Amino acid sequence: MANYEDVFKKIVAHCKEYGFVFQSSELYDGLAAAYDYGPYGVELKNNIRNYWWKSMVNMNENIVGLDSAIFMHPTTWKASGHVDAFNDPLIDNKDSKKRYRADVLIEDHVAKIEGKIDKEVGKAQKRFGESFDKDQFIATNPRVVGYNEKCSAIMSRFSAAMDKEDLQDVKALIEELGIVCPVSGTKNWTEVRQFNLMFKTQMGATAEGASDLYLRPETAQGIFVNFLNVQKTARMKIPFGIAQTGKAFRNEIVARQFIFRMREFEQMEMQFFVRPGKEMEWYDHWKESRMKWHQNLGMGQENYRFHDHDNLAHYANAATDIEFKFPFGFKELEGIHSRTDFDLKSHQEFSGRKIQYFDPEINENYVPYVVETSIGLDRMFLTILSHSFKEEEVNGESRTVLSIPAMLAPVKAAILPLTKKDGLPEKAREILDALKGEYNCQYEEKDSIGKRYRRQDAIGTPFCITVDHQSLEDNTVTIRARDTMEQKRVAISEIQNLVSEKVDLKNFL
Ligand code: ATP
Q1: pTM reported for the whole predicted model
Q2: What are the beta bridge partners of residue 213?
């Protein structure tokens, strides 16, 4: 296929055409960075959420769930550091009047250099063939070593400037690197400023009686302020985790790339509370466990990588991102953060109430340390769409298929009577009735069978079950697999087992 922008445009168009994702308020020309999920989108989203919830909560005895309110006492955000520090550095180009995140401009510049490294590695791989030792090449090739040194120098200078809140140096770095505005092509930049990402609103009827509230920028704080409620009522013993999914809101400076960066989005977060000093052990555990969760989907091990942070957030002593290879390159999909005891301690101070745990094993009271896993549901949705969208030539015809992992597919099976008469619809509906309590199925009798197959391919349905005249005689049907397009004749009584084997979540947990 052509360049990534074309691929990405096709995915966005496909999402709209097939009822996965619509622009919010499209009727009024849309609202930037807000999206609505259509009939198939909501199914896929629910399935992803369910996969996450079951793997985190049901499969771990020591993790329980929570659903806290979006509105929280405003002091929460003072205590968490968001009022003072939840900022992005922004910079404007004076010619194009376009606004950018300074950190993103710098990271993109570094990514370009990394692209050059990949090219050198690719060339050498071709040259040396089987005897190629990639690690050695990266460690010794002067050009690659040079590029790598350049990347680390840029990132350490940037981290140091951010740590010192030296925004002038961030601007100087952008200028020295010769970064130009992608729209105007010029280096005519404004100063770098900090911009707080929280949305403010008001609660209360009258202006005088109203108090300022924020829409939560992360679900995590709802977990922290409920630490004792959950620990006591569910009688949890450390180490244990609290998981929650829910909406979060960020007034992103630059919200592009479809549902990759939204102003309203959904998070799936788990805060794991541990004894102080044990956090790095658990951090490593969750790094590995979360990577396995992603790779379990079968979307290619090579499409994931860790990116450890140099520039740590105010609350963390270690942090990594699980990055996924989107059409526009490797980008963050999930964050794993060792948050120390920062949040609980801070809520303790601001509320004046003790938030401690008595550990019977060591006979001590302490404020637990926290390891967080935090993934965006919408971003996860985009990984699946971008990996599974394929345009193929089959027997001289082209088809568009979404090879969504079967257990997450919006519709698991389509039941299709070959014709609309001769009792075939009735037979097909019998099959539908037997399956629909198990998983989301669809019945379709309109259009030719080929057209119906194509339509099911386009929404990612793993199985099409066709009822024909022979079905009336011997209770068999043809079952067609989406990815291989192979068709087999099977007994109606076998359908459930065949489908379940591939789509039942429990087979993948
Ligand atoms: P980024 O660096 O991309 O702004 P972040 O590091 O601020 O992300 P976290 O605060 O760690 O992100 O949030 C955890 C997860 O929530 C991210 O890994 C991502 O999947 C998701 N997420 C964060 N911001 C957005 C957004 N604006 N739109 C969609 N998903 C988001």
Answers
A1: 0.89
A2: 201
For the chain, domain boundaries: 1-76+200-403, 87-196, 411-507
Cα 471 to middle of ligand 1, angstroms: 51
Q: Are 287 and 337 in contact (CB under 8 A)?
A: no
Tens digits of residue pLDDT in 35-60: 999 999 999 999 999 999 999 999 99
Query: Within 10 A of 229 (CB to CB), how many other CB atoms are there?
Result: 12
CATH topology of domain 411-507: Rossmann fold (3.40.50)
Q: Take atom 24 of ligand 1 and give the residue whose Cα is closest.
A: 261
Distance from C-alpha of 400 to C-alpha of 455, rounded to nearest angstrom:
9
Q: Is the pLDDT of residue 6 over 90?
A: no
pLDDT at 300: 95
Of 117, 137, 119, 115, give the one whose Cα is nearest residue 128.
137
pLDDT at 1: 44
Q: Would the CB of 262 count as within 6 Å of ligand 1?
A: yes
Give pLDDT, residue 304: 97
CATH class of 87-196: alpha beta
261 lines ligand 1 (CB under 6 A): yes
Write down the CATH number for the domain with range 1-76+200-403: 3.30.930.10
